[in-house]
Amino acid sequence: MSENVLCQPVSGRQDQKAFLDLEKRLYRDDPNWVPPLWSERVKLVGFKHHPFYDDAEGQTFLVRRGDRVVGRVLAVVNHAHNRYHEETRGFFGFFECEDDEEAAIELLKTAGDWLKERGMTGVRGPVHPSLNYEVGLLVDGFDTPPTFLIPYNHPYYERLIQAAGFEKSQDLYSYEASIDILETLDPKLLFVIEESTRRFNAVCRSIDPKNFNADVRVFLDIYNQSLQRTWGYVPMSEAEVDDQSKGLKNLLLPKLTSIAEIDGKPVGAGFGLLDYNPLIKKINGKLFPFGWLKLLMGRKKLKRLRLVSANVLPEYQKWGLGLVTLYKILPEAIKFGIEMGEFSWVLESNQLSRGTIERGGATRSKTHRIYDRSLTPDSEQAST
Fold first, then answer.
1. Which of 80, 333, 362, 375 could cross-link 175 (Cys pair, CB 3.0–4.6 Å)?
2. Nearest Cα to 151, choosing from 36, 279, 276, 299?
3. Which DSSP helix (H) or strand (E) runs through 357?
4. Out of the domains of life, which is the source (predicted)?
């Protein structure tokens, strides 16, 4: 490769288009790739307003070899994260690159330099653009397409990121199982579900379509409270919660949700998202003008469900109420026609959730990885 490598900030609409188009070109011949919802992607990378950036700074970069765009990345300073964790950590996301090690190293170095100029002493990623959204680099499980809102990438990306000095920080696991696992559920888990229901006199209900917005807020509020001690967690802002509520309104089916209440107080929430990816692929990620209609009309034929969340308020955790919420959803999923379920994602360090899912009969299907790299002079000297 004789042409020089040059990495520069994205500037202007032509660069923005090149940033988005690179993804299409790199995966053009990959049958497992699913395009993102482009109207959402332009907001998450910062090209249009997204409430995440009300308390964060972001800068996108392109790396070229000669006149050809060969890579891209987003560098992020997440002020909410750094306040919450009392650290000075930057992030990177939306990394895409040709199999060009020199270009990838230059791209990630430039992003790191931008973060250092803003006082960051370390960088973590990939996150798109935070752990409350899509997260992780796929390192195992390339044989099948991703489910809805789960990242996908080429296998060689792991080598490129490691070449740039990054080391593993945490793995995220996806598990899958036939949706009829109720018929073979471990009796010990059934006992936990029954005992937890009896102990707390817990009652589960679905989202009320007449109070949809309020109930979605209940879900997101429980999410915010339940994960306070979870690795990497940062609370979503009120504006982010509102934005997520609007997005979920068109995607959630009330019957595939569950709110656990004790004496009328919501204490746990679980929900499944239909795997819209087969339909998103058909509409090429374009919701307008008729993509939304095709998603809504076609979802009755979907056979896969992503079980995204079973969150419980801290004071009720470790009592099995998360299982109670999921137990309510599974029969409804079977009635809908769902055949396979995916639990994603689950932190490698979350031994309790992993053990419960594995005892329930699910098997690990994909692994995504989050990497760290120090930005201090000593560590950079050691990695060169």
1. 362
2. 36
3. helix 351-359
4. Bacteria
**The amino acid at 281:** K
Query: Smallest Cα–Cα separation from 111: which of 65, 164, 152?
Result: 164
Walk along the chain (384 residues) and give the pLDDT tens digit of each residue: 568 999 999 999 999 999 999 999 999 999 999 999 999 999 999 999 999 999 999 999 999 999 999 999 999 999 999 999 999 999 999 999 999 999 999 999 999 999 999 999 999 999 999 999 999 999 999 999 999 999 999 999 999 999 999 999 999 999 999 987 756 777 778 888 889 999 999 999 999 988 988 898 898 889 888 888 889 999 999 899 889 888 888 889 999 999 999 999 999 999 999 999 999 999 999 999 999 999 999 999 999 999 987 889 989 888 888 889 988 898 899 999 999 999 999 999 988 889 888 888 899 999 999 999 999 876 543 333
- Total count of residues recorded for the chain: 384
d(CA 95, CA 35): 15
**If DSSP codes are grouped into helix, strand and coil, which group holds residue 8?**
strand
Q: What is the pTM of this model?
A: 0.93
Instruction: Please report the DSSP string for 113-144 in residue order.
Output: HHHHHTT--EEEE-EESSTTSEE-EEEE-TTS
Which value, in Å, is the radius of gyration of the alpha carbons in the chain? 21
Locate 292 and state its tokens: 């939304």
The token duo for 359 is 């005892």
Residue that has been written with the tokens 């998360």 in this structure: 322
Cis check for the bond before 278: say yes or no (omega within 30 of 0). no
Burial tier of 269 (Cβ tally within 10 Å: 0-12, 13-18, 19+): buried
Q: Residue 75 pairs with which residues in a beta bridge?
A: 59, 92
